[in-house]
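Dissemination and training. As part of the outreach component of the grant, students in the summer workshop were shown how a complex can be specified as a set of sequence lines and then modelled as a single object. The example used during the hands-on session is reproduced here so that future cohorts can follow it. Participants entered these lines:
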Amino acid sequence: MDGREFRFAMGNFSTGVTVITTEVDGEVSGMTANAFMSLSMDPELVVISVDEKAQMMEKIKESGKYAVNILSAKQQDLSMNFAGQNKLDKDIPFERLSGVPVIEGCLAQVSCEVTGSHVEGDHTLFIGRVNDVHLEENEPLIFFKGKYRSLSPIEEMVRS
Ligand code: FAD
Ligand code: NAD
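and obtained this result:
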């Protein structure tokens, strides 16, 4: 198995898309990420995985806080902007949730403080204790096989 094959296999796991945001010395930074999951209910914890080469690594270490912004199907341009794949030619407005910058128009904004970090391979897992969430009714942006998609409903099965 080579790296390409590994990425190809992982790309078959469809995910939502998030932008991780944080702030250091009044400067807001964002990074597109799909390595995000809900970790614990009691206490409420989430985890993200950040590449050692990403600028976001040091920024989160320094701020000790981050927010997970779950993108809507209308926010593909934001995903591409924060993955460095294109540049929006307008300023992106940030709101604040529990003192952490968040992006408007997302399905969910999840504001966290870092309670632990684990280096594994070439990524660091940042455990975040959730301080606040804000929800909006929207359709999600999906990432599958390296491409963006939107959800289409299928017939719901009845539980027996
Ligand atoms: P930079 O390269 O400095 O920033 C990324 C981009 O965001 C730059 O173009 C920058 O101009 C822009 N930007 C930053 N702050 C602002 C701001 N305040 N206003 C406007 N624009 C701004 N990598 C991971 O480590 N973990 C993942 O889970 C992950 N998942 C991904 C999922 C998808 C679908 C994609 C497409 C990429 C994913 N990546 C992931 C890769 C990651 O998004 C890129 O490598 C990214 O460029 C890393 O950003 P950086 O922290 O190095 O910051
Ligand atoms: P891709 O085909 O590279 O990604 C498919 C899947 O492979 C991703 O969903 C992820 O699960 C996995 N993957 C890709 N790069 C990884 C990495 N460096 N570490 C761990 N898992 C990784 O998708 P793409 O559209 O070509 O991606 C654009 C860029 O974003 C690439 O440079 C890619 O490496 C990066 N990316 C990084 C991660 C990550 O660090 N977790 C996740 C997705 C995409």
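The chain has a mean pLDDT of 96. Students were then asked to discuss how this feature might be tested experimentally.
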